[in-house]
C-alpha cells in the first residue's frame, strides 16, 4: 500500500528537505550494492549490513536475524529490495516535481509525471513520533492499521519472509467521498531499519494462490516507499516522506485519480497523527 519520504521540493527552499538529499543518495547506493552482492543464494550470509551511520562489525551470534531459507523466499526479498531501490531513485531525481498541495501545518505534496503519463505523488511532513514508533505502526503492526485508518478495511500478512520482508493483501474501505471506490492490493513490502533512517518500500506482486478477488478491482502499488528520519534537534519528531505510486486500474478518468490520490495522502497523514496523539495520551 503505502503507504509513503526526502528532498528539495519543487524549487521551494526547505532546509530540512535539502539535508536529506545526501542521506538518500547514500541509501540508494547501499541498497543497490546489496542487490548486486545478493545475486546468488550462496551470497546471502548476514542480515546486518553497512548502512549509513553504522560502522560494520562482525555480528554476534545472538544478533543475527533469520534469513530466507528457500529460493521462493529469496524471490520476495529481491522483489522488495528492487522496489525500494526504484522508488528511492524516483525521489532522488529532482527534475519535474510540481507543488500540488501546501497545507498550513507545513505538509507539502508534490507530483511528477512519469514515463507512461502516470503521476506519482510525494508527501513531506513532520510527525510527532520517533522513527521506532512509526516503524512499529507502519510495518511491524501493519495488520492493525484498519483500527486507526478508516480508509482501510483490512490488511493481512500472507507471508513472513525473514524479519524485513512481508507479502500482504490489503482491501480499501468503502467510505463516503471515496472517488476511486474499493480496491484490493497484493504487495511485497520490504523494510530497512538503521540508526539514521527507516526505509519502507513495496510494490505489487502476483501469486497464483491468491488471484484477484471477486467484487474488487485489483489495483497495483509501486514501486513506492516511505522514508523516516529523526529531526536532528528532536528525536521525538520525524521527517516523513511518502512516495505514492499507484495504478488504480478500472476505467476512472485520470483527472479523478489525480485529485483523489494526494487527498488520500493527506487523509492518511491526518489519521496517523490522531493515532500518534492517542498513543501518547494512553502512554
Automatic annotation (TrEMBL):
A Pfam family it matches: START
GO molecular function: cholesterol binding; cholesterol transfer activity
Reaction catalysed by this enzyme: cholesterol(in) = cholesterol(out)
Domain of life: Eukaryota
Pathway: Steroid metabolism; cholesterol metabolism
Gene3D superfamilies: 3.30.530.20
PROSITE patterns xrefs: START (PS50848)
Keywords in alphabetical order: Lipid transport, Lipid-binding, Mitochondrion, Steroidogenesis, Transport
Span of domain START: 93-281
GO biological process assignments: intracellular cholesterol transport; regulation of steroid biosynthetic process; steroid biosynthetic process
Annotated localization: Mitochondrion
InterPro entries the record matches: StAR, StAR-like, START-like_dom_sf, START_lipid-bd_dom
Cellular component annotations (GO), alphabetically ordered: mitochondrion
Record text on subunit structure and interactions: May interact with TSPO.
Identification of the protein by name: START domain-containing protein 1
Species whose genome carries this gene: Dicentrarchus labrax (European seabass)
Amino acid at each position: 500500500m503505502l503507504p509513503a519520504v526526502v528532498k528539495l521540493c519543487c524549487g521551494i527552499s526547505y532546509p530540512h528537505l535539502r539535508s536529506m538529499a545526501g542521506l538518500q543518495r547514500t541509501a540508494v547506493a547501499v541498497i543497490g550494492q546489496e542487490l548486486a552482492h545478493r545475486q546468488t543464494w550462496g551470497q546471502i550470509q548476514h542480515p546486518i549490513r553497512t548502512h549509513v551511520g553504522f560502522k560494520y562489525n562482525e555480528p554476534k551470534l545472538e544478533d543475527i536475524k533469520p534469513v530466507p531459507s528457500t529460493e521462493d523466499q529469496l524471490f520476495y526479498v529481491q522483489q522488495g529490495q528492487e522496489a525500494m531501490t526504484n522508488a528511492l531513485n524516483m525521489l532522488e531525481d529532482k527534475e519535474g516535481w510540481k507543488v500540488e498541495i501546501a497545507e498550513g501545518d507545513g505538509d507539502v505534496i508534490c507530483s511528477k509525471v512519469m514515463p507512461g503519463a502516470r503521476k506519482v505523488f510525494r508527501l513531506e511532513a513532520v510527525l510527532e513520533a520517533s522513527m521506532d514508533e512509526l516503524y512499529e505502526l507502519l510495518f511491524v503492526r501493519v495488520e492493525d492499521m484498519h483500527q486507526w485508518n478508516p480508509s482501510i478495511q483490512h490488511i493481512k500478512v500472507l507471508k513472513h519472509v525473514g524479519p524485513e520482508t512481508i507479502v500482504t493483501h490489503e482491501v480499501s474501505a468503502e467510505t463516503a467521498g471515496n472517488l476511486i471506490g474499493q480496491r484490493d492490493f497484493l504487495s511485497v513490502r520490504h523494510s530497512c531499519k538503521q540508526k539514521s533512517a527507516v526505509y519502507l518500500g513495496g510494490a505489487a506482486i502476483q501469486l497464483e494462490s491468491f488471484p484477484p478477488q471477486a467484487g474488487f478491482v485489483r489495483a497495483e502499488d509501486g514501486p513506492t516507499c516511505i522514508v523516516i528520519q529523526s529531526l536532528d534537534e528532536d528525536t521525538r519528531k520525524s521527517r516523513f516522506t511518502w512516495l505514492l505510486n499507484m495504478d488504480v486500474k478500472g476505467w476512472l478518468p485520470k483527472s479523478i485519480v489525480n485529485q483523489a490520490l494526494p487527498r488520500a495522502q493527506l487523509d492518511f497523514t491526518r489519521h496517523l497523527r490522531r493515532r500518534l496523539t492517542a498513543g501518547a495520551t494512553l502512554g
